Fold each of these.
Amino acid sequence: MVRQKVTGARSLYMRGYLLTVCLSVWMDSAHGIGVQLIPQYPVVNQSVTLSVTGVTGTIRQFAWYKGSSVDTNNQIFNVIPSLNSVTHGRQYFSRASQFPNGSLQISGLVPTDQGSYTVIIQTAETSARHTVLLPVYEPVTSSVISTNNKEPQENGKVTLTCSTNNAEKILWSKNGVSLPPRLILSADNKTLTFSSVSRSDTGQYRCEASNAVSKTISDPYTLTVNYGPESLSITGRLQVTSGSTISLECSADSVPAPTYQWKLNWTVLEFQNSKLNIQQATSENAGNYTCIVTNSVTKISPETSVYVTVNDNDSAGFTAAIICGSILGTVFIICITGLLYKKYVLSQKGQSGDIGEDPSRVYENIPNTAKAHPAKEEGPYMGLQYPSQDTYSELKK
Ligand SMILES: *[C@@H]1O[C@H](CO)[C@@H](O)[C@H](O)[C@H]1NC(C)=O
Ligand SMILES: *[C@@H]1O[C@H](CO)[C@@H](O)[C@H](O)[C@H]1NC(C)=O
Ligand SMILES: *[C@@H]1O[C@H](CO)[C@@H](O)[C@H](O)[C@H]1NC(C)=O
Ligand SMILES: *[C@@H]1O[C@H](CO)[C@@H](O)[C@H](O)[C@H]1NC(C)=O
Ligand SMILES: *[C@@H]1O[C@H](CO)[C@@H](O)[C@H](O)[C@H]1NC(C)=O
């Protein structure tokens, strides 16, 4: 009893096994065939083998068709391996050849070879059919970046275009790393748009175009965003002493580097760079120095000014000395003039008075010579007093 049971179980198991084997054989021959592309990514001008896989048993006959429908009009060839017989169909082309294992080889691929191919394999047991899609890849052409705006200014719109063919994927990089996220790429990634470009977008851009069979990387494109001049300043000493050097430097933030021009008051100076040097400065060089900074791309030309004073050697002390000196000088001249006036003008008056008066006095005062004598002695003294006042008033005038 026990043994029978065991036998029964075994026979059931055996039947199941046989069924599985039969099924798998049937599936392999009927529905289990496939086509493998060798190489996986066929390239134009090269060859490809559409290799039939999963065939069990001897192939009695096989046929290849262009397209997915099995139609005599689409037939490339029909082959009976055992007879070495190949019948060309309407779609036959000389670059197509067959192998006894059912495979189709196409050499010298052209882009129009791309498409569906269908094979029918007949073995002793059954026939099976499979359709495969053949892609034909072309290598990507070298990628080149071009722009719509060769001299972009800040906040302007800039597009960079990656020109390439046959690419399936395009990736951009900036300074060797992937792009910052705010930038806009077209659906195919060919165009990179900066709707409002900023100075921080300045950098080296590359595009990498690739497909399954090749990859090219463009030369770097240097995007330079122009701006400024801004943040102008003039540095240098604003108070210099006579005989020393006036040395000013003008600076500004600007791309491209700006040109510089200097003015003193309203006069344009010959200096054309950021540094200005005037040696042996005199008071003539004092004034309002203006630096005009021009950006040739943005056409912006701001200016800034400083006032430079040139002091005489000892500055304040010397000035004070000059003022004092001139006051003293004036006083001195007054004194000298007074003395000279007294000496010449009055002494002449005094002499003539003596000559004119003396006789009358002498004659009138002859009777009292004693009285006249003191008067005569006072005469010169009085004479000195009067002219002195005259001199003063004359100087006042
Ligand atoms: C394929 O061959 C043709 C003709 O020889 C040639 O002009 C073409 O450049 C080749 N293409 C590739 C991708 O090699
Ligand atoms: C069929 O034959 C070709 C040519 O010998 C070979 O490249 C291919 O791998 C074969 N296919 C199979 C499935 O063996
Ligand atoms: C476009 O670029 C992004 C990254 O910036 C990448 O993830 C995506 O695969 C690219 N698409 C194509 C079609 O190249
Ligand atoms: C510039 O102007 C200032 C007064 O505004 C004047 O003192 C100075 O002498 C002037 N400098 C020149 C070189 O004209
Ligand atoms: C210098 O001149 C500019 C005009 O050229 C004027 O705007 C500025 O006020 C002047 N600066 C001084 C310190 O005189």
Amino acid sequence: MPIRARARVNLAAIERNVARLRRELAGGARLCAVVKADGYGHGAAPSARAALAGGATALAVATAREAAELHSAGVDAPLLVMGAVSSDELPVAVAARAELVAWSERFVAEVAAIASHPTRIHVKLDTGLGRLGTRDGAQALRVAQLVVDHDPLLTLAGAMTHFATAEEDPEFVAHQLTTFAPFVAEVRSLKPGIVIHAANSAATLRHPESHFDLVRCGIAIYGCDPMHVDPEPRGLEPALELSSYIAAVKRAAVGDSAGYGRKFIASSETWIATIPIGYGDGIRRALSGQGEVLIGGRRYPIVGAVSMDNITVDLGPEALVREGEPATILGHNGGERQTAEQLAAAAGTINYEIVCGISARVPRTYHRDGEPA
Ligand SMILES: *Cc1c(COP(=O)(O)O)cnc(C)c1O
């Protein structure tokens, strides 16, 4: 029997995407695989292992708990927590043996006060994203110096920044790099051999001058297009397929409606299929009356409101579709394919939110090119 909703993740695709991204890296830069938000919805630990098999040498997450999960899953690689870590969360991150990002002297002192083993710190300069990090280069250097002062309990491992517009505005990337450069020179003289990193997936593909010693790739390792268009021409392979099945097919006469609020009313006789996947599974409600589903190698429009547990699609006047048939939300079906980029465009969002939004209710299964993982 079909499963109401499931996500199949091809770990071999993640491995190949990482290998493909590594081929962009001139000058010996290494690749850190970003597996935050449960591996962008793909499952953090399996994605992390696949990325390491593809040649990633480090992992990054956003939160202390995410680090703890990978640590307890026994994933063995340097692990960076990129996000803000509060005093309450710090012991969890330290216990997970994670590397941390600092931009204040207060935070460095806090880490030094609780660290029971040598802890690696990356200093962050905000060169224009306007989020985490300090905008003040002198402050960033004072933080770096304080880390060095705590050697060997703390190690100054890296210096970093993050781009605001890597996928769309090369001029602002250049501006951020210009702001980053003097800090890089000074921190390198403070600690020769320090790992400098800046690039996300888009910068890895578009800005080789931003690669430095390490790139931090998230979206692209899962085979989504960091430029939001189409992964295929970029040599990236979507790793996740999201599917459901046709639970019911019924005739709609003129005037019959489908879904809450009667947002769809048949204007001519047609057949409506109900597919048991909804916003409780991560199908954006913005796809109500928007977007498509693949059935039997053809595209069919979602009609009516997306509800928590179901969507309805218009099969047209000839019911070519039978109950029990698979329905593909993301991935291949016959000769058709649907990408996270297409679904994102229909929902008015970005591919990142489509894959991260697949909820915990959807079981993930893993394979390698169709073979058991
Ligand atoms: C999420 C994140 C990344 C990865 O970004 P992608 O666009 O998914 O490659 C890199 N660096 C930082 C600081 C991040 O928060």
